[in-house]
Amino acid sequence: MFEPKYDGFRMLVFAHSGSVLLQSRNLRDLTPAFPEIAEAAADLGEDVVLDGEVVTYTGGRLDFAALQQRLNRRPQTVTRLRAEQPAFFIAFDLLERHGSDLLTWPYAQRRSALETLFAERALQAPWQLTPATDDRALAEQWLSEWGGRGVEGVVAKEADQPYLPGRRGWRKIRSRDTAEAIIAAVTGSVSHPNTLLLGRYTTAGRLRLVARTTPLRLAHRRELGAFLTPAGPGHPWWTMRLTTQWGSREPLTFTCVRPDLVVEFLGDTTIDRGRWRHPVQLQRLRTDLGPSDVTPFS
User: Fold this and answer.
1) What is the DSSP letter of 199?
2) Alpha helices, H only, the chain
């Protein structure tokens, strides 16, 4: 069975005797951040535990950055954000209903029970039921067509598999596309770079960071080391401060290089405000292209 993989926050919804808890994958209490989901869960009027993804939309595309704005905010701010950009809960599993533990049920049976819940209660927004299919061709169509909407790929699940808390029992297949960007900085040495920091120019001529690569293969390190040139204080990123990864405060040490080399990379569809959130994979150096040939930052 296949389901879309959404770019949102994984969430468990616990509704018991009118009490509601919204919990993240790392056991964080998300209830204050998403009151519209908590209120909808309380209105169900029955005991359930649901697994799913909380998402928001901007212009028809899933907006991960907007979700992050909900965290650690005052109630007044959350109320304003809720009105401006409401959240939705996309349900993909039912773990308990009417006091019955469904964890040991096969996925196909839990899916049927989830569909029954949505039908019996005629659930509307903020509830959404994820599509699911056993048609491989349709799943491949989702991969090719839904990436531009913020769907990261698909999740493959065994129809007879029980729910496995805390274990990787499902397979994620991410949508990936190639793109071009300019090498603007490196980690490691210029002559033997470890990773690349890639940029694109805005239409106003500002060089913006768009991606960081995974560690380079040895052949790529040798090839790029022969072309890269260190840059001086005039580089637009000379005073820029970066962290080692999303959500970290550890500073990243990097060296600016002359932004005149273009590379092609492979990345997934999790792009926030023009920047790839996950590391991308270098494919090749594009000596046939110059910085002006690269798609502008958007």
Assistant:
1) E
2) 35-43, 64-68, 75-84, 107-121, 136-145, 218-225
Instruction: Write the CA distances from 85 to 57, 159, 186, integer angstroms.
Output: 7, 35, 37
Lowest-pLDDT choice from 89-93, 131-135, 286-290: 286-290
Question: How many domains does the chain contain in total?
Answer: 2
Domain ranges, residue 35: 9-130
The predicted-structure confidence for 28-83, as pLDDT tens digits, reads as follows 999 999 999 999 999 998 999 999 999 999 888 888 888 888 988 999 999 999 99
Q: Are 92 and 51 in contact (CB under 8 A)?
A: yes
Task: Say which DSSP state 222 is in.
Answer: H
Could you give the residue numbers annotated as active site? 5
Residue 153 covered by a domain: no
User: Got the DSSP string for 44-69?
Assistant: T-S-EEEEEEEE-EETTEE-HHHHHT
- Please give the model's pTM, rounded to 2 decimal places: 0.72
136 belongs to a structural domain: no
